[in-house]
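User: I'm preparing a small set of examples for a lab meeting where we compare how different chains pack in three dimensions. I only have the primary sequence for this one, and I'd like the structure in token form so I can line it up with the others. Please keep the answer compact; I'll paste it straight into my notes.
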Amino acid sequence: MPAKNQDLHGNAPDKSAVALLLIDVINDLAFEEGEQLLRFALPMAERIARLKRNAREAEVPVIYVNDNFGRWRSNVHALVEHCLNDDVRGRPLVERLRPEEEDYFVLKPKHSAFFSTTLDLLLEYLQVETVVLTGLAANICVLFTANDAYMRDFRLVVPRDAVASNTEEENLHALELMRTVLKADTRSSNDLDWAELKRTTECRRGPMTAP
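Assistant: Understood. Below is the structure token output for the 211-residue chain.
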């Protein structure tokens, strides 16, 4: 019996030193500050959509990590359909960032993308060393995820214009924490070169090999 299943997560073809994470962007924004957040989320969504297109061209896997909103019987399709077909505040956000067939999707029960989810295992089998974090909200779920990624020794990139919070002040404060405490690269999304990021990541630990 082999010590390790060589294909534990199925037939996914991706192997990449870098992964793009979209955090809580499938969101109906049905909470008190939702309208306020939407004002910042829509321009953010345009930048994330561009990052996602460029990531796909560079063969970088795209992983949606999304809150289950306390609905333990929820699933990916139900969340997307709710946000697209019901009259919810977050519909224009989801229209811009709806998942595609080749994307990965991880449901999370709490703030961090790593807490009680399959993300650790997925990143291991994709052989990811650098995570690029985008989405909502910078000062809550993105920050909690960044903290857990840092403790797992991932290289962190958090494009400063691809995350949003309820206020600019909260967003800037969270970005500064991630930059100074968690050593995150907070360059603009326009300055993110996927090929260069993959190359520099692979140089940290040598060429990638099969698990």
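A couple of notes for your slides: Residues 121 and 165 are 28 Å apart (CA to CA). The radius of gyration is 16 Å.

User: Perfect, thanks.
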